[in-house]
């Protein structure tokens, strides 16, 4: 029971790391003409149900981020590198500047 609670806490903390990383990205978006991210990425729903976000069923962590064709402007914050289970990042057809964190050794489409 204690072990179970402990494990649950670790999983919750880990997904909240992903949430913090994505909220940081949201804060760095200066223009979101379709209000995709600005309206949908809120704390009232799980990160895994956010637009463009796919969680792995195995780890229950953010595994893919697909914000392609959303006409987003802004910068990519280094906190995006905290998505430690991310395997796919698609940012095609946006105006996002800034470096993709080097810790991400994944499929990246820009
Ligand atoms: C965000 O978008 C997803 C997918 O379209 C939807 O299921 C979810 O309810 C939306 N959440 C909010 C807070 O609008
Ligand atoms: C959303 O949740 C994060 C982390 O739990 C918190 O830091 C942030 O202040 C919250 N934002 C809002 C608008 O409630
Ligand atoms: C991202 O979404 C677009 C539109 O749905 C799709 O065409 C594209 O293949 C997706 N990218 C990845 C890496 O799955």
TrEMBL record:
Gene3D superfamilies: Ribonuclease Inhibitor (3.80.10.10). Residues 16-56 form the Leucine-rich repeat-containing N-terminal plant-type domain. SUPFAM superfamilies: L domain-like (SSF52058). The keyword Nuclease does not apply. Keywords: Leucine-rich repeat, Repeat, Signal. Residues 1-16 form the signal peptide. This is Leucine-rich repeat-containing N-terminal plant-type domain-containing protein.
